[in-house]
Write a structure and sequence with these properties.
Elements lengths: L2 E2 L2 E3 L2 E3 L6 E4 L6 E5 L6 H17 L3 H17 L1 H12 L3 H24 L6 E8 L7 E8 L4 E4 L7 H13 L3 E4 L5 H14 L7 E3 L16 E5 L2 H9 L1 H4 L4 E5 L4 E5 L8 H15 L9 E7 L3 H13 L19 H15 L3 E5 L19 E4 L8 H4 L6 E7 L2 H9 L4 E7 L4 H15 L2 E7 L18 E4 L6 E4 L9 E8 L1 H4 L7
Parallel strand pairs: 1-5, 8-9, 8-11, 9-10, 11-12, 13-14, 13-18, 14-17, 16-17, 18-19
Antiparallel strand pairs: 2-3, 4-5, 6-7, 7-22, 15-16, 20-21
Helix pairs in contact: 2-4, 2-5, 3-4, 3-6, 4-5, 9-10
Length: about 525
């Protein structure tokens, strides 16, 4: 029987009492490890996390907690090779895609370690200046932010078992809030291993970092009013979470990142082969194939001027035709598998649904897989769809197929393009592709501001940044991650802005002698 991964809560390693769920290699089909959370006394364990881990973290300054994050980076770097092997086996990703997850996580923790240093020896954060409430300033009000006295329950999606853990955990730990992470079952191995390595290294106080692998049953029931809930996953699950008594009745603060039908927009004036045209083509192909299209930020809708529809279809298809798909252990493979056969079936069904209203411009699924059995491997080659009448097919604007799939759409003018983007009902990211001259820059800036109301992030690419930009789908810790509407309405990262979620804002009204002593910066 495969190894059973242990849960960790409040300084204790705990085995579930059930048979567990087996995790499989999505390419070879081999059984890897098991996870199980049956029989855990979650209310008791969570209370120990709050009392033990929370108290220890809050006793430290931001600078000291930044030191903890720096120590975590060292642990993760020392074990990186093991993480790469787990990612290949459990997620079916090629090395470059594993790096996006693993190295992206390590970089994010490192960024928050440096940001924490800038906060110095404070234990609370000032929020604005003193506001006078009486003549002569004899009585006033000052807002402060203090770390919440609860825990942060982080429920993550299957596509980023490493980055998903640390992009949530790093700001929480820096804020002084203990973390309980619940990874998606299908790819929980990497998350559990990282938590295990950090705990065994002894770099964190007991109870500061915790992991539950397996069923999520009972997790929300154990939450209390000062706890936090951060969720990445489907909009349907997010709706259930918002209705849970922990949120609806106990006012647990919740942050949601859900479905997103993101767009890439080629600005007017481009021509086939122009710099901006080629930048769009390259980025669309990368977004469709990186992590096998399993990114919440991936480009799902590609908008181009009407006259360029055919040229864009041909150029993107030509790039996709070069993508080799199969076993990531083979050096000639450029795109690995989806995370499971269940995801394979869901993506195939989603493609068929979109094909009912769109034409198929490129379908790589006819090519043979490399070193992989198509009856076993969860591999789906890239599929580019298209429609010449995007106004007529609402399905294309609201359906996210979570795999290597995108839909090409023509627009008449920029107003039409903006209207099409808006039909996504709120997205995580939109990218704009244009030239560098002043007229183009004016249009790019105006369009970016217009689309900012619909997105958490607008990514503008011109030839000047062709070799420098971080990528449409790459989430950088310095920038906001989240989006309005169907994207969940949440906010993560954004530098020190991420700490806001983990703090409680309060106004202290007092004489200047008291207010001046609230924070070191006063």
């Amino acid at each position: 029987m495969t190894e059973l991964l242990l849960n960790h809560l409040g300084g204790q390693w705990i085995a579930g009492t059930g048979a567990g769920t087996t995790l499989h290699d999505p390419v070879l089909g081999d059984a890897l490890v098991r996870v199980d959370s049956t029989g855990l006394n979650l209310p008791a364990h969570f209370e120990r996390v709050r009392a033990q881990g929370g108290a220890a973290l809050r006793a430290m300054s931001y600078r000291e907690r930044a030191g903890l994050l720096k120590a975590i980076v060292a642990v993760l770097q020392a074990n990186r090779d093991a993480y790469d092997a787990i990612s290949t086996a459990n997620s079916g990703t090629v090395k470059n895609d594993s790096a996006v997850d693993i190295d992206g996580a390590i970089y994010t923790v490192g960024v928050y370690a440096k940001l924490g240093e800038t906060l110095g020896d404070a234990r609370v954060l000032a929020d604005g200046d003193i506001a006078p409430l009486a003549k002569g300033g004899a009585f006033g009000s000052r807002h402060v932010q203090v770390p919440t006295r609860g825990l942060a329950l982080c429920i993550n999606a299957f596509n980023f078992p490493s980055w998903g853990l640390w992009e949530k955990a790093a700001p929480a730990l820096l804020s002084g809030v203990p973390v309980v992470v619940k990874p998606a079952t299908a790819t929980a191995w990497l998350t559990q291993r990282m938590v295990q390595d950090v705990i065994e290294a002894g770099v964190l106080p007991a109870g500061a970092l915790n992991v539950v692998c397996g069923s999520s049953a009972g997790l929300l029931d154990a939450l209390q009013p000062f706890d936090l809930l951060s969720f990445t996953g489907s909009a349907d699950t997010a709706a259930l979470l918002r209705r849970h008594p922990a949120v609806a009745e106990r006012s647990v603060r919740v942050n949601i990142e859900a479905d997103s039908v993101n767009s890439g927009l080629l600005m007017p004036g481009a021509t086939p082969g122009s710099a901006s045209f080629e930048l769009l083509v390259k980025e669309v192909a990368r977004e469709m194939t990186q992590k096998s299209g399993q990114k919440c930020t991936a480009i799902r809708r590609v908008l181009v001027p009407e006259a360029l529809y055919g040229a864009a279809a041909e150029a993107i298809g030509a790039r996709l035709a070069k993508v080799t798909v199969g076993n990531p252990r083979n050096a000639s493979v450029r795109m690995g598998a989806l995370v499971s056969r269940a995801q394979f079936e869901a993506v195939q069904a989603g493609i068929a649904q979109l094909q009912s209203v769109a034409e198929t411009l490129h379908d790589g699924r006819g090519a043979a897989l490399i070193d992989a059995d198509p009856a076993v491997a969860a591999c789906v080659a890239p599929v580019l769809l298209g429609t010449r009448d995007p106004d007529a097919h609402g399905l294309l604007h609201v359906t996210e197929v979570f795999g290597p799939v995108a839909t090409l759409m023509p627009y008449r003018d920029l107003d039409h393009a903006r209207a099409l983007v808006a039909r996504g009902e709120g997205s995580l990211a939109c990218s704009l592709y244009g030239e560098d001259d002043d007229t183009a820059a004016d249009a790019l800036a105006a369009t970016a501001l217009d689309l900012a109301a619909l997105h958490g992030r607008v990514h503008v690419v011109t030839p000047a940044v062709a070799a420098l930009h971080t990528g449409h789908g790459n989430v950088m810790p310095q920038s906001l991650h989240g989006g309005p509407g169907r994207a969940g309405g949440g906010e993560e990262l954004g530098g020190l802005r991420a700490l806001n979620f983990h703090h409680r804002r309060a106004a202290v009204q007092a004489a200047p002698a008291v207010l001046s002593r609230l924070t070191p910066a006063a």
